């Protein structure tokens, strides 16, 4: 099976592993205070343990980046991470966002020509947009893709975020400085969104 035939979450996992190996353990990420080593340890722990503390995180980091990359490349445990349908929901956005955390923190441009990533991000912003809209009530929130779909949450006339799906996802997941989106709309709604 070629790389393009793999499910999008698996492609993102493998591409992120390649990027982690390329950048090394001390490269920055968009996750405040985390290097690529911290991020790799987080991803391993997330799939193999329901809870962990700083000691367990330090233990994983002590294994070194190559070992963590090897564990990530081996794939996630079968349940629930590899169940068809659930796998993309559980891991797709996680790997997409963290892939961009490494790319953007290291001066790399957004990836283009990846409709698989756009589709994954657009599915994911349905939930994250709803969560963001709840935080800015009574204002509404509208997400717009230039030349593409629009999704509205809550009241009309609220804040409007415009950008490609991956950029909208990054903005809604807290990577506002790195996300290439335009924020417009009702000033009160925009202020509420900025404060959320």
TrEMBL record:
Matching entries from Pfam families are given as: MDMPI_C
* Alphabetized InterPro entries for the sequence: DinB/YfiT-like, Maleyloyr_isom, MDMPI_C-term_domain
Query: What is the protein name for this chain?
Result: TIGR03085 family protein
- Organism of provenance: Glycomyces sambucus
Q: Which residues form the MDMPI C-terminal domain?
A: 130-191
Organism's domain of life?
Bacteria
């Amino acid at each position: 099976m070629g790389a393009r035939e793999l499910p999008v979450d698996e492609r993102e996992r493998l591409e992120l592993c390649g990027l982690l190996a390329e950048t090394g353990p001390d490269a920055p990420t968009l996750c405040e205070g985390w290097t690529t080593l911290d991020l790799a340890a987080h991803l391993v722990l997330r799939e193999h343990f329901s809870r962990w503390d700083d000691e367990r995180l330090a233990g994983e980091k002590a294994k070194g980046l190559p070992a963590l990359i090897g564990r990530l490349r081996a794939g996630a445990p079968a349940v629930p991470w590899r169940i068809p349908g659930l796998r993309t929901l559980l891991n797709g956005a996680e790997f997409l966002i963290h892939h961009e955390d490494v790319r953007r923190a290291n001066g790399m441009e957004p990836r283009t020509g990846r409709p698989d990533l756009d589709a994954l991000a657009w599915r994911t912003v349905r939930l994250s947009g709803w969560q963001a809209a709840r935080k800015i009530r009574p204002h509404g929130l509208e997400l717009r893709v230039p030349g593409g779909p629009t999704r509205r949450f809550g009241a009309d006339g609220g804040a409007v975020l415009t950008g490609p799906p991956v950029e909208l996802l990054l903005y809604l997941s807290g990577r506002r400085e790195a996300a290439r989106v335009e924020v417009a709309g009702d000033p009160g709604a925009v202020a509420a969104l900025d404060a959320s």
